[in-house]
Amino acid sequence: MLRYIDSNKMGRSQLGWLDSYFHFSFAEYCDPNNVQFGVLRVLNDDRVQPGTGFEIHPHRDMEIVSYVVEGELSHADSMKNEETLTRGQVQYMSAGTGVYHSELNHGEKLLRFLQIWILPDKKGHEPNYGSQRFALEDRRNRWFFIASGSDKAPIRVHADINMYAALLDKKLNFKVGPNRQAYMVMIEGSGDVNGTRLSTRDAAEIVEEDVTVTPSEPVHLIAIEMAKA
After folding, report:
1. 222: nearest Cα among 161, 177, 150, 178
2. Superfamily of chain region 10-134
3. Beta strand pairing status for 73-77 and 82-85?
4. Which of 63, 62, 86, 92 is nearest to 74 (CA)?
5. pLDDT in tens, 66-121
6. Where do the domains of the chain lie?
7. Residue 122 C-alpha from the chain's centroid
8. What are the tens digits of pLDDT across the range 106-147?
9. Is the dihedral of CA 211, 228, 121, 45 positive or negative?
């Protein structure tokens, strides 16, 4: 089963310094019928103006992955981690028992990144932070394995998920087996997923169904595969 998610009907936050698309209920956007998809609790497509960003604030008991689409994302946290990531690079933070952090745009250009929150397998993990400076070419016409609940991916999270990204200019299959589901986002470009048209920022919920992505132009996607809810 495939369900199309139209970005034009997503929750929005337009604050001047921040323009966000909310795939699920978040902040002022509250829809009781759209709270999460399996263990995927938040997926925000954030556009942050230069010289602004998310100042220091707390989190706990959440696995947080940030995927930089364009611009510069500068991270700092109470574990004394500080760094700046750019296009295609990924950071991971397990908030666990509690952590403070900030995510800022110190650059001169617009920052766009996907903010992804995943429910952990249990509460009370020790807070942790890491990042990966993946090369964009690693994603060229294949599903590049980014994060997983197993030790098979570069980033290990405390949840039963598998996260992939791809840059495609030709057809590519994606498998979703029995008792599994996936959330796929068209980050850039447009194309068909099993005959359903997805444009920039659109998404698809896929349940127990293998799909084929057919680009109509070069596309950039992310897919989060998990246990069926």
Report:
1. 161
2. Jelly Rolls (2.60.120.10)
3. antiparallel
4. 86
5. 999 999 999 999 999 999 999 999 999 999 999 999 999 999 999 999 999 999 99
6. 10-134, 137-227
7. 21
8. 999 999 999 999 999 999 999 999 999 999 999 999 999 999
9. positive
DSSP symbol at 140: B
DSSP string, 1-61: -EEEE-GGGSEEEE-SSEEEEESS-BTTB--TT-S-BTTEEEEEEEEE-TT-EEEEEEE-S
Best CATH choice for the domain 137-227 from the list 3.30.470.20, 3.90.1010.10, 3.30.450.20, 2.60.120.10: 2.60.120.10
pTM (2 d.p.): 0.97
Contacts of 1 (CB under 8 A, 6+ apart): 205, 206, 207, 208, 209
> First CA to last CA across the chain, in angstroms?
14
Fold identical between 10-134 and 137-227? yes
